[in-house]
Design a protein that fits this description.
Distance between the termini: 14 Å
Low-confidence stretches: none
Strand order of the largest sheet: 1-2-3-4-5
Radius of gyration: 15 Å
Number of strands: 5
Largest sheet: 5 strands, antiparallel
Order of helices and strands: EEEEEH
Number of domains: 1
Strand content: 25-35%
Helix content: 10-25%
Length: 147
C-alpha cells in the first residue's frame, strides 16, 4: 500500500519542488518511497514520478507532464524513442537501478535525448533531487526495515 507522507519530504535544490510523496509499505515493512516532483524544462513545467528503494537506488522514473518540442524534447515521453537503441532503453528507463549517489551527469552517466540537452538536464535534475530527497527520508525513518 501507499501512505501519504503529507509534505514531510522537501527539496533542497532551487528549481525542483516535491509535490507529493508516499511511503510504500508491505505489511509493517517500508519497501520504498514514491515522489512526484516538478521543475522547469525547455517548454515549461515538467513533472516526474520517481521511486526510491531502501537500498538507495531509483526503482524507476516516469514523466507525468512535459510540454517540450514535439520530435525533440518531447521524445522523452515517447515509449518507442530509445536513447540506447541496442538495449531498447527509453530516457526515463535509464534511471531504474541508478544509485542516488550517482552524479546524474547528462552526456556522462545519463544518455541525453538527441538535440535536447536542456530537456535532458531538466528531467535528470528532477530525478536526481527526488532520489536524494527520498533517500534521506528513508535513512531517517527506517529502523530495522520496519516503521
Amino acid at each position: 500500500s501507499f501512505d501519504s507522507l503529507d509534505g514531510s519530504i522537501q527539496s533542497t535544490v532551487s528549481g525542483v519542488e516535491i509535490l507529493d510523496s508516499w511511503k510504500a509499505v508491505r505489511g509493517a515493512e517500508i519497501i520504498g518511497v514514491a515522489i512526484r516532483a516538478s521543475g522547469s524544462s525547455y517548454g515549461g513545467d515538467a513533472i516526474m514520478l520517481v521511486g526510491v528503494s531502501p537500498d538507495q537506488r531509483l526503482v524507476g522514473a516516469r514523466i507525468m507532464l512535459l510540454s517540450d518540442t514535439p520530435g525533440l524534447g518531447a521524445n522523452a515521453v515517447n515509449p518507442s524513442y530509445f536513447v540506447d537503441k541496442t538495449a531498447k532503453m527509453t530516457f526515463p528507463g535509464q534511471f531504474a537501478g541508478k544509485p542516488v549517489t550517482d552524479p546524474f551527469e547528462v552526456k556522462k552517466d545519463v544518455v541525453a535525448i538527441s538535440a535536447s540537452t536542456i530537456t535532458s538536464k531538466a528531467l535528470t535534475g528532477i530525478a536526481k533531487e527526488a532520489g536524494r530527497a527520498g533517500s534521506e527520508w528513508l535513512k531517517t525513518n527506517m529502523t530495522g526495515g520496519t516503521r
